[in-house]
Design brief:
The protein is mainly beta. It has a single domain, classed as Porin (Beta Barrel), CATH 2.40.160.60. It contains four helices and 25 strands. Strands 1-4-5-7-8-9-10-15-16-19-20-21-22-25 form a 14-stranded antiparallel β-barrel. Strand 9 (about 185-210) and strand 10 form a beta hairpin. The longest helix has 11 residues, at about 5-15. The radius of gyration is 24 Å and the shape is elongated. About 45% of the residues are buried.
Amino acid sequence: MGRFMNKATGLGILSSVLVSTAALAGGFDRGAVNIDQLFDRDRFSARAGVTYVNPQRTINNIQRPPVGAPFAGASIDVDGDYWVPRFGVKTNVAQGVDCLATYTEPFGADAKYGTNNIYSPSAVEFYLDTQDYGLTCSYQHAMGSTKYGDSFLRFIAGGSYMEVQGFLSRQSFFFGSAGLGVPPFNETGLGTFSIEDEAFGWRAGLAYEIPEIALNATILYSSEYDLDLTGIQDNRGFTTLNPVQQAALGGPTIPIRLLGAEIPQALDIKLQTGINESTLVFLNMRWQDWSRLSILPVINRNTNTPTGSTLDVSYRDGYTVTAGFGKKLSEKVSTLTSLTWDRGTSTIVGTQSDTWTLAAGIRYKENDRLRFSFGGAIGILEGGMSSINPANPDPSSGITYSFDADYVYALTTSVKYRF
């Protein structure tokens, strides 16, 4: 039976263009650690790429107690565009044994709300940055011949070292006593909250392959990254406490620990096969245990007691499904089109709503060693509302707002060298 489609063609497109859709996933997920390059049939390959994502999110009708607080009912355009770099080197170590070294920034968040507005007591700026250094290896075992070609079972195992940094700033307002007052109000300061840690995670999985028809079925489990995030909180802008109350906590700046933080476990299932000499179809599914993150209390490390501040996430599990097809137009040019549904992870707080994304890309083969990929995506972020209980221990959390359906855009490019 004739060869349908070189597997490297199909997966080469997937690992570049699909990054633009994976980078829009729920929770803090920006595509996780992608190991598609491990399946290259080349003895050696190196690949570098970057994805730019620009969500157009606006939050509306922002309200917080007391009634009549400054700027109530306002709308804010949330500035939260970001870049996701990726780099991978794959080599054939021995007969049937391949290894892939990767660097990426697989999880993160970026949002800027501005100062002197109704939202700034909850957040002025927020970001979570991760850097992941990974190594994944596999052993390919021959399973015998089928009517479509030789089949193989691949055993996959690997791990990652991840660095995590988080930052949140808030603006406090006073009018006579603690709390957000009515006009005229006093701006009392911009407090900061910064945390960091390092952690290890591991992954393991199986893949069934028939290279002759570009068939690949992979299941991959990724463990959680347990985090002990510690850092500094500046109480001058981070609570509604007056200076005397701040002193009772240990001063305007205190060492802190964030309880219950982790990058949760995940499961990926990927299926693809060639259906004729120039066409490949695929289906990718991902689950991640984001419901592990709820309301995370902040602990004063001096006194080992709660500070009264919290990081309110209240996520539900994330599910992502991507389906599409790749088309080989010529010996030099291949294309891909995909549609992705991502179930938003937000529940009572946040704007991580369901997302539908259409992506397309092209790969150009300069020669047998050098290949370029370009792609883009446009998505719809569904609308919703957020309402945090004002009785929460963190007084800044008593806020409600809504958001309409918005758009998100992404661009990605990569270059690959192989021999």
